[in-house]
Amino acid sequence: MKNENTKFKLTSNFKINILGIKVFQIQATASFGLIKEGDLGGWVEKENNLSSSGNAEVSGNAEVSGNAWVSGNAEVYGDARVSGNAEVSGNARVKITKEYMTISSLGDFPRTITITKSNKKVVSGCFIGTVKEFEIEVNKKYSAGSDYHLAIDFIKKWLEL
Questions:
Q1: Strand 69-70 and strand 87-88: pairing?
Q2: Rounded to whole angstroms, how far apart are CA atoms 101 and 90?
Q3: What residue ranges do the domains of the chain occupy?
Q4: Contact at 8 Å (CB) between 25 and 19?
Q5: Per-residue pLDDT tens for 94-110?
Q6: Quick one: which of 13, 59, 127, 158 has the most CB atoms within 10 Å?
Q7: What is the pTM of this model?
């Protein structure tokens, strides 16, 4: 199916993302909102990932690939990557910076964990401490294999611990 997008086109700039998928940078073909014709944007796998409907925005070094969708007023920016069968919609925002990361909706209570890279601290609810201290507290409250344990494994990799 031919893409009917009138706002963006694929450029010849490409790279291979962390999943091994070749993605292309997009360029605005018209001015709209804060976007000016010729502005470079995020990265997509193929032209069919582009849509002229809705207000979804992918910018910076963000990547959307595979069967992933970004729609509605959703934003994907910074160095964020949305891939596989993921869907980002509504007023959602996905952002990854080099300084901090958040992981949301974990456990029985919808908690958010915030991790800072510069001081390697974890904040979750009323807890503030190191990854090791966080892991000790999680081990006291949750059995192995919980969402929190998976998050700790991811945090350790992200912080290169």
A1: parallel
A2: 21
A3: 8-96, 100-158
A4: no
A5: 666 677 888 887 777 67
A6: 59
A7: 0.41
